[in-house]
Amino acid sequence: MRILHTEWSDGFGGQERRILAEMTGMRARGHDIWLATRAEAQLHTAAEAAGIPTLRLPLRGAADLASAARLARQLRRLRIDVVNTHSGIDSWVGGIAARWAHSPVLLRTRHLNNPLRRGWTNFVHYLPDRIIACGEAVRTRLVDECGFPAAQVVSIPTGIDFARFRPARPRHSVRAALGLNDTDELLLMVGVLRGVKRHLLALEAIHRLGERRPHLQLVLAGDGPMREEIAARAETLGLTGRVHFLGHRDDVPDLMGAADALLLSSRSEGVPQAVTQALGMGLPVVATEVGGVPELIRQEDTGLLVPTEDADAMAAALDRIFADPGWAKTLGERGRAHAHAHFSLDAMLDATERLCDDLLQRPERTTR
């Protein structure tokens, strides 16, 4: 197949990593892959480094018909079979371009668990042949709450290449590089430092554990607009020396190998890759019960779930993990088995190939 992805975002979080993994994975299976994005997007740089050809477009907004016209010409020139859009702006531009170019298949991947509203002012949502939800919870919300036809929405969870996602350095050397030792309790958070991730709530939970867990260290891998606010709040709570800001990291497997547990404190998620990655490595996880997280974590079986915006419940769950390392290890082992069975990269690519192939084989394809 000849597949082109579009992406407007200039960040490089879980959404962009899934797109890159899908593009490289499908290319390894023999498909021809392109990416259309903005020149300043981090995904553009990553895709070019991976050898994926990119088309640079301004993507100035949803009504950027000039970008849509340019993209439509490229779709016809490259004889693209499948157009897969991802964010809001590129879904408008890419969706319009795909229909102008009469591309056989148009997909939209929905990475977030926020609602999408259908209506004449949002006609772009009527354009895709299928909307790919990154988990069953996202699919259910689109169908039950947002009114999308059940037949239009399919769940394909984000998959991780567990064979490659493994530490390259030993635990003690990673900890030493962070200024930590083997007696410290290392709690890791991986993600962009923005409001929806609720790092401020995590600080409140850590503060509540102060006397009971004096060796607890919170390590934040990721950067974002709330870094200064989070640092200021940590100082106010007396946690400055126990909260470590690492910024963007490319050695997340090393960090997970050095950690004792992973924390997700978000108020909204799709199916978070950090949780999937941690489970795949056997790392115990405490996470808020949002979006597709319950698909990954079965309470007290593959991890611990806590309500959103509940620092006390979060603190209690973390205390259980650190107070009983043997039980936490068992949670991690069950989490690893669950993740490898249901959330692997191969499972995601298999489902994507089946979907595209089925749509391309439709009798009505020849009339488009």
UniProtKB/TrEMBL annotation:
SUPFAM superfamilies: UDP-Glycosyltransferase/glycogen phosphorylase (SSF53756). Residues 174-337 form the Glycosyl transferase family domain. Residues 12-164 form the Glycosyltransferase subfamily 4-like N-terminal domain. InterPro entries: Glyco_trans_1, Glyco_trans_4-like_N. Pfam families: Glyco_transf_4, Glycos_transf_1. Coiled coil: none annotated. It comes from the Bacteria. One of its GO terms (biological process) is carbohydrate derivative metabolic process. GO terms for molecular function: glycosyltransferase activity. This is Glycosyltransferase family 1 protein. It comes from Acidihalobacter yilgarnensis. The lineage of its organism: Bacteria, Pseudomonadati, Pseudomonadota, Gammaproteobacteria, Chromatiales.
